[in-house]
Design brief:
By secondary structure, the protein is α+β, with helices and mostly antiparallel strands. The protein is 25% helix and 45% strand. Strands 1, 2, 3, 4, 5, 6, 7 and 8 form an eight-stranded mixed beta sheet that branches. The chain is globular, with a radius of gyration of 17 Å. 20% of the residues are buried. The C terminus is likely disordered.
């Protein structure tokens, strides 16, 4: 909460930083297969709603692990988060690109989906956890991998 005489929209840096780190940690853990750490970012009653998944945070981590086990090597390039706070709740939004290597007609390519990430975080007994996360994906596009010619 902003101190008196501070403009609307002011975000206390400590809280905003905690929420920013939480959202970035969750994505980094997913990209690097740190499933236990990823799970710790979600509250036990959390909900995740994506183009390919709708369910609990726990089930999302399990589905992500299974996707990685099957060889789907998605990585995320993330823009800077914007955090808005209201007491012990926060909304963090940022743009990003999800990259998935693919082979199309024998040519290595990179499927890149531009997306908007929306995380709702809440401070509970532990610092901040994600009770809700939403991914709004734009249509994917294929990009030729560097070093493959053309």
């Amino acid at each position: 909460m902003a101190p008196p005489n501070v403009p609307d929209g002011f975000v206390e840096p400590t809280f905003a930083s905690a929420v920013t780190q939480l959202t970035l940690l969750e994505r980094d853990c997913r990209d690097h297969g740190r499933w236990d750490s990823m799970l710790s970012c979600f509250h036990e009653n959390s909900r995740v709603n994506l183009s390919w998944f709708n369910g609990s945070g726990r089930d999302f981590v399990a589905a992500s692990r299974e996707m990685a086990r099957k060889g789907v090597a998605a990585t995320h390039r993330l823009g800077p988060p914007l955090v808005r706070l209201a007491r012990d709740r926060a909304v963090a939004t940022f743009g990003g690109v999800i990259d998935i290597p693919a082979t199309v007609d024998g040519v290595e390519a990179l499927l890149s989906s531009h997306a908007r990430f929306v995380y709702r975080a809440e401070r509970r007994a532990i610092p901040f956890v994600v009770p809700n996360a939403v991914l709004c994906a734009h249509p994917p596009r294929l990009c030729r991998q560097r070093g493959t010619g053309g």
